[in-house]
What we know:
It is a single chain. Helix 21 (415-427) crosses helix 23, helix 22 (437-447) packs across helix 23 and helix 27 packs across helix 29 (621-633). By secondary structure, this protein is an alpha+beta fold. The strands form eight sheets. It has a five-stranded mixed β-sheet with strand order 19-20-18-17-21, covered by helices on one side. Strands 25-24-23-22-26 form a five-stranded antiparallel β-sheet. The protein has 33 helices and 26 strands. The chain starts with 12 loop residues before the first helix and ends in a 6-residue tail after the last strand.
Amino acid sequence: MSTEDRPPAPRSLAEALRGRDDVSLGALLRSRPDLITPVPTDLTQLATRAGTRASVVRALERLDRFALQTAQALAVAADPATFDELLGLMAGDDADPAVAQALPHALGVLREQALVWGGDRLRLVRTARELLAPSPQHPSPTGLGPTVQEATAGMSPGRIQEIVTAAGLPSTHDSVSAVTSLTELFSDRRRMAALLAEAPADSLDVLERLVWGPPYGQVTADPAPRLRWLLDRGLLLPTAPGTVVLPREVALHLRRGLAHRTPEPVPPAVEAAAVHRPQVVDSTAAGQAYTALATAEELLKDWDEGGPTVLRAGGLSVRDLKRTAVALDVPEPVAAFWVELAYAAGLIAPDGEADERYAATPAYDEWRELPPAERWSRLVTAWLPATRTAGLVGGRDAKDRTLSALGPGLDRSAAPEVRHRVLALLAGLPEGAAPAAETVLARLRWERPLRGAQREDDLRSRLAEWTLAEAELLGVTGRGALSAHGRALLGAPAAPAKSPEAEPSGPGDKLPVHHRPTHVPTLSPAEQAVASAAAARLLTPLLPEPLDHVLLQADLTAVAPGPLRRPLADMLGVLADVESKGGATVYRFTPGSVRRALDAGQSASDLHAFLAAHSRTPVPQPLTYLIDDVARRHGHLRVGAASAYVRCDDDAVLGEILADKRAAGLGLRRLAPTVLAAQTDPAGLLEGLRAMGFAPAAESAEGDVLITRAHAHRTPPRTAPEPVPDGPPVPDDTLLAAALRAIRAGDLASTTPRKPGTAPEANGEPPRTGSAETLATMQAAVMTGETLWIGYVNAEGAASQRVIAPIRVEGGFVTAYDHTADEVRTYPLHRITGVAELADDAG
């Protein structure tokens, strides 16, 4: 293309955006969704919004390390800079080929996000330059100081001439030319090498200490000779009393042109710490998934009749969390994870009563009836987008208050993005490969350097570590490697084939797997539902089939060699106590557990029949005797409400109770030979007598035995907590298309030439005309077919500018083709603030 045919370079960011097509503008709005909230009226407003500090900071935080290094290099380059100048700063005098290859892509990312604009002459948006440029209060990440021109801005002309003369340059008549000649000297590699060759060795040592930053140093009123030599020649320039700086041009010469000590054009590879057979990974992950379901059910069963009290500030108390950890037989941080997961899945919530407690929700009953794989799918689908971060429990917030499980302050909007990215990195490894955690963290720090170490002790790294641990707890991974159902959950493509050198050789072997992970897209809710269903299908054959039997043993225990079917598990949970868990669950029968079953309405014959039907071994005689003995004594004593009373046909038994010292606290006295009255309530009397070794039964006012079953306390219907978004959501295709159409039309309205004398000269200000003039102009445009520029205020009071082609004017309305909406619309004339004719050559 000849110079004459080349389009003129844009003079502003707005002009650069105006030259983009819809695909490019759509990419900008997707990468920076804050620019579309609300939709800008035109491209000038879009450019203004793209240059605001908050928006630029957010965009810089989402750059990878090399793109950020490119932006930082532009911040210390001339404004504008050519591509060759930028390449020199990034690749140095040695012209690193990896940097040269990666730089166009990094520059393309900066252009796409409207952080850089311009054709052959690159310009970093002003706000980004202010954020990244060096200053004494805000040192540059590059370690470079100010230019010679900036450092000598307040220096006297005489002192500048002294420096020029000491540097071997001819004196000039003004300071501007003197500074220019000094800058040219420091930027000339050959002449600078000759000047530094004359420098004392200890003076060069001073430069070496400052060359990679920080570039500022302290000097006394009488500098040492090694410093005086540098100061005399301008190789160090004073910036404040007692402070000197190494000029940028000098530092770049010493760095051989590099803006960064170590450019990082290539992301660090994720390495495999161990490689296992995929079948082993899948079976291990399935076992973890089964354990996850059992743990979640045990937690919810423990809270079935009403869980811990809600703290006044919200959340669980430390004591309740410890009790829950003991009940689940897990450490407290793991217990906090299970509690938060059940809350995120909508299975537990506060009940909202006066004495507010946590309890299961109605959704828990529905969840229990699902097949195991679908129950697992519901849990992990709640985990993936959750912003509540259980790993923070026990820490401190900004006001030094302890963060409690289920309490406020646990939301971290970056959690879903980090969680998805970590799993995506695992999905990029060969099947069965477990990553080395430090390489995953290094990769995440490269991808988001500004959102890492400077925030909350590297929150992203901690989120990544928690993700790896939580994925293992949930069975998404097995032995650290992503399982097949975990891969399906992400909607990830098939794993790359294993290389020959990555054969499994033991869980402790560290094997490098150098490649770039496969891209794993973030799924929409509908796509996630499909992926979750696919994961559940893959997991189903790996989970153990529920059993309908147990193995009874002579030591009053029953062994469940696997998961039990729900009716059997529920009944056995009432009749016996869980003694140990694992691959096989051991239940122990005790007098208390048998009495619990009898209290629930079972008879001795029912229990004998139940055990005989579900045991693969003969019912041991000791267990038969235990059931018969407890049943014989069960209900012999009757407790009812007086305040409370106890009655028994055998007055000798009542006499035994009265004589027992342990009954002193019950306040018993004999009313009749077979009746005792108590000062405590019936529940307290029942517990007291049971503690003494008796087996009383409660009775109603009519004298009938009361059957007590576990009361399932439920909250009112509750919705799961909504994740806290990390900024505005990415616009979908429908919103994006509508926004682009509105922005283009608004820009057409604000930039189309008007006929002289028909519109205000103020840029972007809508026309103002009277009602009669508006009506007359509209009617004339209908006859001539002209296009008009109007100002319009809608029913909500929002003002806008539109370009319309009137078709018909009648009844106080104008029907016109609206270029803004790309459709025919009708507008009330009284809402049109003004009208102006467009120039004949417009469009």
